[in-house]
Design brief:
With 403 residues, the chain is an alpha/beta fold. 28% of the residues lie in helices and 24% in strands. Strand 2 (61-66) and strand 3 (71-75) form a beta hairpin. It is globular and about 65 Å long. Residues 1-10 and 104-109 have low confidence and may be disordered.
Amino acid sequence: MTEQVSKVRSEIIEGSYIVTLNPDEPEITDLFAEVQKKLENAAQLAKIKEDFAVNLGIDGIVENIFSSTHAVHIKMNSFEAQLLNKDKRILRIEPDLKLRVQKEQVEPGWALDRIDGDTAALDNFYRWNANGAGRTIYILDTGVNTSLPEFGGRAVTVWDVNDPDHKTPTWGQDCNGHGTAVADAAGGNLFGVAKGVSIISAKITQGCSDTSSLSTHLFAFDWLAKNAPAGTIVNWSNGAKAADCNVPVISTALEDAMRAAYAHGVIIVVSAGNDGCDTANYSPTRIDEVFVVGATGSALLSSGKDAKWPKSRTGRQIDLFAPGQDVPLYGHDGALYAWSGTSVSAPFVSGLFAIGCQLYPSYCAQPKRAFDGLKSAMTPNTVTNPDGTPLTGATSLMIKQSW
């Protein structure tokens, strides 16, 4: 048990906590209502955070207030967190976590050709009945090189955690490559599913790394819950690193934030993960309010089978599978690479949602209706285990560019 705990703690951000307050306490309801009024005046933000800390009786620093989920991001030491946890107004306190994008990079491949067919037979064509025009996909990732011709002027950056006030020349730039590849799979001119969709990039990782914090993700989803119109699509190709498949990594705060966005009509597509573990043991893949995507490879296409990529997570929470091994996509430098991981499977599905929302706009104001509608149009019983035997532990449903 000690070894398992130490593995989980390796991903914890020391001195940083997500504090969720009890909305059933009248004082808390009034407090957040007052905060929401004052937040309309950005100049008062620092004072609001100070007042919040005073109200909670802490010496720590309030970094952000997530009013959609009655949660607060606080920098404080572990002793103060333990004391605060005894306050009857506190529902729970959980540590901030490091989250990483799911990625692997290998040789060029095959993927877009597979997406428009009922079977695993390739025909060297990709056909579509709509291109996602008029719809929007948010890419929460390492940034996107929005100037690449691949995006045709349809991609913009809206936020960068490293430079929230847009003061530096490197604002929003992708110096890692992952975010650009994800955006390319969703809406690139050559390699994307939805070739007319609008892409909005929010850089949530630190510098050129693939690492971000739980508190950053809460900030993003809190903003989306309060500002994004119903029918907005969000691609989240991230996740907590699994040190051991038998040690669950759960964040109720993250799940609450995603549920709040979902309740406001936001369609959230997430990558299943790349460690072969069970999605039931991880946030947010275990919840119904996100659309979970696993990955397949091309090894058995000649046998007419879509083999699950060996590293893809499994689990009944996976809604469907999409190509995710040796996928040709552009990187931040404009060069073509081959990417592997459920990270690139997810944006294929995000692009497919954009196409469906263009064709059937009424579906997209209700995420569950969009989820059910997409799955009803997909191809069943085509995905197998990596060795070609019938798939175990997940629903054998494969992406198809059709609604």
